[in-house]
Design goal:
Strand order of the largest sheet: 1-2-4-3
Mean pLDDT: 95
CATH superfamily of the largest domain: NADH Oxidase
CATH topology of the largest domain: NADH Oxidase
Helix content: 40-55%
Largest sheet: 4 strands, antiparallel
Number of strands: 4
Oligomer: single chain
Number of domains: 2
Order of helices and strands: HHEHHEHHHHEHE
Shape: globular
Radius of gyration: 21 Å
Low-confidence stretches: none
CATH class of the largest domain: Alpha Beta
């Protein structure tokens, strides 16, 4: 079997039937999700938030390496401290729960090994051999893609020069080459999970506010995060008050953003 996971169809003896979906109800969730600036007094059951975060963990993510972490801030004292780090904005002060969504750039190597171990365990259980292409991806290709940058990215210029030289002659991946690229990679995946969380909370009858306005350094200190942990956004969770939505939803003309080729 080929070692190329990108171009070969893998024979895994697995099928999954997609269930029927009520599109009208799905669209209702999408269109009724608003960034709520002020939450009311109604409490949000913990099981609602728990289920939403679990839905976040089901979001698509690069190579299934899951470079994320979700800090569910429930205690009143810590919520109060965190809301001040969000510049005291109403969506943070009135939220019943705060979820700090963290992109992690230091877990990919260990998670490659975890993926291999998980696949091997499933293989033994089901009697299906793990394809060589999959083994090669997690043991060789992923480390080449996400690694070889060195401490503080000192080897990144060499990695950039090497791959871009190859790129003169063939299709080649161009990122991540620098630690900043790796942060972007982790943020993209974590943001996908954030949207899952917000839609799940809306589907359960509650509301959210995604916040980028916060003092990241203080937030990281409050939660004990490290130098390879990066806050993507903070989600306020609650039930919208009567004045919680500041106006009708507005977007620029869709023709400005949908480009057909």
């Amino acid at each position: 079997m080929s070692d190329n996971i990108f171009t070969e169809e893998l024979e895994l003896n697995y099928t999954e039937v997609a269930p029927e979906i009520d599109f009208v109800e799905f669209e209702k969730v999408i269109t009724s999700r608003r960034s709520v600036r002020v939450f009311g007094d109604e409490e949000v059951p913990e099981e609602v938030v728990q289920k939403a975060i679990e839905h976040g963990l089901l979001a698509p993510n690069s190579s299934n390496l899951q470079p994320w972490e979700f800090h569910w801030v429930r205690s009143e004292d810590k919520r109060s401290a965190l809301s001040k780090m969000c510049f005291g904005q109403n969506g943070a002060k009135t939220a019943k729960h705060l979820i700090v969504c963290v992109a992690k750039t230091g877990t990919w190597k260990n998670n490659c090994q975890r993926m291999l171990a998980s696949l091997e365990a499933t293989s033994k259980k089901d009697g299906i051999e793990v394809p060589n292409a999959v083994k090669a991806y997690y043991s060789k290709i992923a480390p080449m893609a996400y690694g070889y940058m060195g401490p503080f990215g000192i080897f990144s210029p060499l990695k950039w020069a090497f791959y871009n030289t190859i790129g003169l002659f063939q299709v080649i991946f161009r990122e991540p080459m620098f630690p900043s690229d790796l942060r972007t990679w982790a943020h993209k995946t974590t943001a996908l999970a954030c949207e899952n969380i917000m839609l799940s909370i809306r589907a359960q009858g509650y509301d959210t506010l995604p916040m980028e306005g916060f003092d990241a350094k203080r937030v990281k200190k409050l939660l004990g995060l490290g130098c390879k942990d990066h806050v993507t956004m903070i989600l306020g969770v609650g039930k919208r008050s009567a004045k919680g939505v500041y106006g009708p939803q507005f977007r620029f003309p869709k023709e400005d953003f949908i480009i057909k080729h």
